[in-house]
Amino acid sequence: MATCPFLVIYFWHACDAHKCDLIAPLNPLLNAPQLNAEVVLNWFLGCFPVPTQEGFALFFGWLLFQAALYTFLPGPVGYGQMTPAGFVLPYIVNGMNAWIVTHIIFFGASLGLGLFPASIVHDNWGALLVAANVYGYFLTAFSFVKAHLFPSHPADRKFSSSVIYDLFFGIEFNPRFGKLFDFKLFHNGRPGIVAWTLINGSFAVAQYQKIGYVTNSMWLLQLLHAMYVLDFFYNEDWYLRTIDICHDHFGFYLAWGDSVWLPFMYTLQSHYLVRNPVDLSLPYFLTVTALGFFGYYIFRSVNDQKNEVRRTDGKCLIWGKPAKVIRTEFLTSDGKVHKSLLLASGFWGVARHFNYFGDLCISLAFCMTCGFDHVLPYFYVIYMFILLMGRIERDHHRCAGKYGKYWVEYEKLVPYKLFPYIY
Ligand SMILES: NC(=O)C1=CN([C@@H]2O[C@H](COP(=O)(O)OP(=O)(O)OC[C@H]3O[C@@H](n4cnc5c(N)ncnc54)[C@H](OP(=O)(O)O)[C@@H]3O)[C@@H](O)[C@H]2O)C=CC1
Ligand SMILES: CC(C)=CCC[C@@H](C)[C@H]1CC[C@H]2C3=CC=C4C[C@@H](O)CC[C@]4(C)[C@H]3CC[C@]12C
Fold first, then answer.
1. CB within 6 Å of ligand 1 — which residues?
2. In total, how many domains does the chain have?
3. How remote is the C-alpha of 39 from its chain's centroid?
4. Alpha-carbon distance 302 to 169, whole Å?
5. pLDDT (tens digit, 9 = 90+) per residue, 336-348?
6. ipTM higher than the 0.90 cut
7. 74 and 163 assigned to the same domain
8. Among 113, 188, 230, 419, which residue has the least CB neighbours within 10 Å?
């Protein structure tokens, strides 16, 4: 919790001052005639972005605007999975509407009406980083206090013996304001994922202002990122049944992660392309496009198969044949027995997390839009690999605990975790 922001700030500084070269920021230290505490401290302070009033106004204005859209825009009601304490919570899934309204207003007001430059996000990036960090830490602390003093669902809280652990992974499962303002869905989707394409767009405009055109690499990046983001909102109801919503509690990991990590680190390729415009050859362009769409096909098909089999209680066709399912029973903390099912055919018969393989292909395609000159744009795929491998282990332990003998049966039927015959 103490060091995460430094990594983000280091990446920001590398891009802002050294054209996204990850080694160059260290030169003042490597070349210092004498390395002492004063040199290190001056270097350290020199790497920090400067807070500005405009940065705070933009960030908190943005947050309030998204909160208003989340609260007031219409949308269908979706339901999460049953929580360990036995609640099935409703969610208003209006993310697609919020995405459309936000983009029309932002680009309409900037590019259409000229009320502010569309590069405003790029132009205030350092100051926004400060404001987002302030909010990320505030939200972590607030969620911790809320969990102790006024929890939304007391029976679904999880306490460990460590305050640090509780701060990091969270105590409350589904913290809410009122009945419907859900912290997890809001922070993930709105300041986090709606921002993703908006930030990209602003950086594309900055590239145009800088070199007079938008490179094909930047267009391709916009397309691939938009595909991923729009998929998320189109399938927002599906997201209610993923690990983040069904199993993770709300602490620093999601509070700071959604406020800072997601908008700042997931968009690194567009920051890179502003400083290092890349014109891709046609064969390379087509290869990266194909990789991105191939990955997306796998990612979405795997996720849809699970959704479909659970929606129809296993009475559906997977790859043209009746779904092969393991019917399971598990206990919730109130002592009640519940039923669920595990799909063991289709992509879920190929490997236990084949959706992650699709996601890794998409991630690689995002990074490859930047060519091979620097390592910084590849941060995303490296991070995703580490995150998803960790998630496979975490999920394995959770499912083994939840499903017991049924999970063992599934493991026997589907021995590979990520990719057949490899892992
Ligand atoms: N861009 C990013 O930063 C990230 C993207 N993602 C993507 O988000 C998507 C969701 O990922 P995630 O939530 O991690 O994982 P999944 O959507 O794969 O959900 C895992 C859960 O599904 C259930 N499950 C496991 N095996 C089966 C089975 N055989 N049949 C039916 N249900 C099963 C279990 O929950 P239960 O049975 O309890 O319901 C398990 O905990 C993925 O496509 C992933 O690639 C993920 C992480 C980061
Ligand atoms: C270092 C640190 C504190 C990391 C925080 C990580 C979170 C911001 C991410 C962890 C899991 C991520 C996501 C999971 C699944 C998703 C579905 C996909 O369709 C869109 C992206 C996402 C919502 C993604 C968003 C970031 C995380 C919550």
1. 81, 242-243, 246, 299, 303, 306, 340, 342-343, 348, 353, 355-356, 359, 387, 391, 395, 398-399, 402
2. 3
3. 36
4. 27
5. 888 999 999 999 9
6. yes
7. yes
8. 113
